[in-house]
Write a structure and sequence with these properties.
The protein is mainly alpha-helical. The chain is 63% helix and 0% strand. It has one domain (2-267). The chain has helices spanning 2-7, 11-19, 22-41, 58-67, 74-90, 106-116, 121-141, 146-149, 155-169, 174-186, 204-223, 234-247, 259-267.
Length: 268
Amino acid sequence: MHYCREYGYSLWEYVLFHEGESILSYIDEIYAAIKESIQRGITAEGELPGELHVKRKAKVMYENMLKEHKENDIQTNVAIASFAASEENAAGGVIVVAPTCGSAGVIPGVVKYLEMKKVPYEDIRKGFLVAGLIGLLAKSNASISGAEAGCQAEIGVACAMGAAMIATALNYEYKKIAQSAEVALEHSLGLTCDPVKGYVQIPCIERCAIFALKAINAASIVDIMPIETAKVTFDESLLTMYLTGKDLHAGYRETAKKGLSKVLKKNK
């Protein structure tokens, strides 16, 4: 942000300047891969691999949406897109890691949201650039690993990426983009990573949909918020997330030994 102030860049221009024009064709590949993963997810049926015998839900959700004539309902479409991409990940399909496989359903939900808001693709592409920037900041300055810092480092960062992507695509100024990412991450702090039996299925798939919607809410709140009242920066939230992750008991960091996974083991 200091660099942008000094040289008059927006955040997406900052990324483009340092990465070069070639990154735009890479973003186009990412966009295409996300769209394809959603399409595959809403047409595939059957069980996901593994001993949990989890049935795919995205196709049924999509069909139910059509039956109920909710094609124009944004929240429903976002959830379906997130489920579709997340189920593709759980099935070993091609997905876009953003920032991890387990949290890869958030950005597809955000993409669906921006498309339904009729945001021009050029602006969506700018959003991708800044989402990547947020993810790289998290990876460099903290963690994006559930094994190291809990699910807050995966789904929380994905949510921050999604909020920043929305804010960028909707042409927020850079302070509000950063604050959108901060709000998304701040309200993901302390989230544990307790996948049932270690599969990226329960609660991971559903969680991606919830946090795609949360990214939309974070950006929407910041849009109407006076930015000068913000007391916590994204960098401060990121550091807090990392320190919180270090304090989490190891059983809550991607081991499937505590939390939700332990409860389901008992009830089985």
